[in-house]
Each structure stands twice: as C-alpha cells, then as structure tokens.
Amino acid sequence: MNTLSIRAQEKSECISEILNKFMLVQKNTYDDEFNVNGICNLGVAENYLCENELVSKLQSIQVWNTTHIYYPNSLGLLSFRQTLCKFFQNIFHLNYQLNPDRMLISSGLSGVMSLLSYIIGNRDDVLLIASPYYTAFDHDVSALANCATFRCPLLEQSTGKFILSVEIFRHGYDQAIKQGLHPCGIILVNPHNPTGDIYDERTIQPILEFAAEKQLHVIIDEIYALSVYENEKPFQSILNYTSIIDPQRTHFVWSLSKDFALSGLRLGVLYAGSDVLCSCAAIINFLQVPSTIVQEIAMVLFSDQLWLDSYIKLNRSRLTRQYEKIKAKVEELDERIVVHNLEQDFFYGVIFIYYYMLIHFKKNDDYFKSSSIMVFTWLQVLFLDVLSQDGFVLYFLFAKNGLMKQLID
Description:
Blueprint: H1 6-13, H2 17-27, H3 51-59, H4 78-91, E1 103-106, H5 108-120, E2 126-131, H6 136-142, E3 148-153, H7 166-178, E4 183-189, H8 201-214, E5 217-221, E6 250-255, E7 268-271, H9 275-285, H10 292-303, H11 305-333, E8 337-339, E9 356-361, E10 378-382, H12 403-407
Helix pairs in contact: 4-10, 5-6, 5-9
C-alpha cells in the first residue's frame, strides 16, 4: 500500500528536471578532502566573487536578543521591511516613499513566486513567460498553487536577437485559450535570464497595457537588478515607472540570492500591487516566513549604507573582470562561436546575466545538442569563481568530443 497521498505521488512523478538534478548533486557534493569523487555543481548560479567580504561582514553582526525565540510576523520583520524600502528608494533613486505594508518577506524568490501563484491563480491556471527562461519557475508556480508556466518564445531566436515584444504574449494568450487553458498572469524577468538583455520602459509598457486589457497580473522579477557591468547605464526598475496602467495587478519581486550572493539566507522580497494582496499572502506565508534572527542580520547589513555602496561597486567590478576574461577565452576557442549581444534599443546594461553567457554556433555542430531551456545550437556558459578571485570555470552544457577539456582552465 502506498503511504503517500495521490497529490504527493503526482508531485514526485512530475518533479522538474532542474530540481531533480540539484537534489542529486546535494546528495553527492564534491569536496577536495572528503568526497573527491563527488559532483562539482556548475549548474547553479551562485556568486563566489565577494565571499570573503560577505563572510567578514556577516561575522561582525551580533544581533541576538530575546525576541528571536518567539514567532515572527508573517509579513516579515517590520524593521527589515522599512529598511528595505529605504534601500530600494536609494538604490533606484525613487522620488516617493515605498509602503512597508505592501512588502512581504518570504523564503527566497521561490517562496515569493509560490505565494503569488497561489494568490493570483486558480488550480491549472497558467502564467505566460518569455522563453528561454529560468526553468525553476515551473516548480515555483506548481508546487503549492498547481499552476503552470506557458512558454512564449522570444522573437528572431534563429538570428540570435531574442527580441521581447508584447506580440509574444498576445500570441501566447491566444494559444493558451485555444488549448482550453486560463492565463492568470505574466512573468517578466528584467534583466533577463538567460539572455541578459535589459528591457526599458518603452518595451515593458505595451506588455503592461496588454495585461491590463486582459486583467492579467504581471510579476516583475528584478533579481539581477544590481548586477550590471561597470560603465553601463543604470538599470531602470519597475518601481521607477511614473505610470503603471494597472498598479494593483503589477508586482515587484527581488531576492538577496543574486545581487548579494546570499542564497543560503532564503530571503525573498515581494512589493505587491496592493496591501490587500500582501495581507492575504501573509496568511500563507506564515508557513515559510524566514526566522527573525536571519531577517535582523540582513536588516543590520542593509542599514550600513557605506558598506552597501562599497560591496555593490566591488561586486560589479569583479563581475566585469570575470566576464571579460571568459568572453576573451571563449572567442579564442573557436571562430564559429559568436557571443550574444544586446539589441541597440535596449539599455547598454547587462550584456549577459552575470553567471551566464549565451553562445551561438554559426553552423550546426555535433559537439552540442539543445537543452530543454535553450533553442537548438544555443548554449549557456556558466562562469563562477569557485577557487579564487583569479580563477574561473567554464561549463558548456552537453559538451562532447573532448571540447569540455579544452574549456576548463
């Protein structure tokens, strides 16, 4: 007799491939002393470039007090939400004050996406998303809410342009309806993962207008907002927009996992379109709100403006140097490789998401096969600093015929 519910059996059978592989790695992680035959995980975007500076700062924070032993506020620690409001106001140069009652702290961006999907969607609803995309969203929107993503391919992928347009969502919406599905929202990732393209207000506004026309929620994921390279124009957040046609259905999400390389703290942020939605989400969030002590450590971190300014500048500098190093290495490797560039009408900001590059082969090649998240002949290259500031690792998905050996330096 099966001891699991039907629901649990269905979840275990349809676990996303990316999560399945991550769990396998976690069971057999490489260690140069204790597990030399383990798996070296080059498939997860975690930034090691400023690890020493982060650890030193975190170790200097001593915040223990009696309140930490009691239940937390399910919206998140009020003082932390107030601090984050000031942080976003400063970093995005906002000319208005954010409302902490519209902000919620949850267990990483996955926790936030899971909550939002549950609040805005019904069972079997779909969220439109430009593809290729970060496929962990599949699990985020399905695990709790039983919703699903619906892929809307970026335009002109075969030429390497990967153009975002409202038309892909119009087409995706019509196709979903024809298939008997009910779209409840749109997920926009800006800067985009995996292309790294930055979308300006001129590109985003028509999508917001279409969403308002169809009464769709729009989730704007800006998890890489502060990870632009040096000497690039500032990223424009959705929080900067002077006019949003349907503000109550437009939601900003962010996390400490990428811009601050603190994925282990599991701190995700929602700035909801309304305090009513946020209050409703808080009821569910009681199940997964991060501990008070973790939030308070982060609050102290984000209260130190001098340190924040220094860290963001340092991180951008090291990301830029690392990107330039890997870009040169890749371009020297094979004349068939072309590095994906931004469209001219986008901001000259992030050329690639900082852990990834997209590489296109001019000719079909037996070395590589397509992955589930990339179109044929396009590949992700992961560049991380896993050993030292001066070292790097290149990783091509589905590499064959000895090319992997050439890439790892």
